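Hello,

Our lab assistant flagged a job as stuck in the queue for most of the afternoon. It eventually completed. Since we weren't sure the result was trustworthy after the delay, we are filing this so someone can double-check. Below is the sequence as submitted and the structure that was eventually returned. Let us know if re-running is recommended.
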Amino acid sequence: MRISMATSVGCAGQSNEDFVGAAPGAAVLLDGAGIPGSKSICSHGVAWYTHRLGGALLGRLSRDDGRGLAEILAATIVEIAAHHRGTCDITNPSSPQATVVIVRAHRGRLDYLLLADSFLVLDQVSGGLQVITDEREVTTRRVCSVPLDGVPRGTPEYERIRDSCVEALRARRNQPGGYWIAKDDPHAAEEAVTGSRPLHDLNGVVLLSNGASRIVSPYGLTDWPGLLELLNANGPADIIRRVRQAEALAAEGPDAPIPDDATVAHCTDLPRSEIAVGRCSEN
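-- returned structure --
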């Protein structure tokens, strides 16, 4: 499997809180989240968490011990939580956390897992593209933001209501009826969106963080088939370049989105069958 990757920090001078990496037959993409300036909660920070979690996931995937992706993610969440449970308030809703996308070519199939609002695009041999995401965070955020409807931005009332909306969203994190994200509770892995497809049904797959998916929405620079055409022609870095150009053009608007870390992994040349492994001769 060939994997091409690109990532870019949203704001110069800050740490990139996304993570992307690959092991033989597998790719991992994480999009970190947390509250800026929360050193009193966790001294390590969001970038530390995503890089530790992503690296540990790749290590476990490379062992190829037959475990399912949800089981691998749960064990990794426990492992990283143990690294800073004694020094940080990891149960605090504002402590570091991350969305997760994992793909693995295994036994003739592509297994996948998504947790929270990153994206996976399956380039199918027939039937076009299938775009998969975990919509629960977006849905929960929309519900919690209803009190802001019609309230003028920049006013004291808006700021007060927004703070209460943020608290309502945090209260629904890793809770039934809310949404799930990698943090300190391994049970979140059981709630991930998972699936499996025969490798011979796929030409390739694309993993995108929320920041990279902005090329489709909200910027509307292309649609999902157009994104795949751009990837095939110019690679992942071109997707991020176009997102940054759109952000620059929108920077003067009153509702301009804050630039976000953006990451893309494009997996092609998927293995069509397992490689037979024979016993070496001792001659």
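-- support follow-up --
The delay was a queue issue, not a problem with the job. The result is valid. The helical segments are 46-63, 69-84, 136-144, 156-171, 187-190, 210-213, 224-234, 236-250. The beta strands are 2-8, 18-23, 26-33, 97-106, 109-115, 119-124, 129-133, 193-198, 202-208, 262-268.
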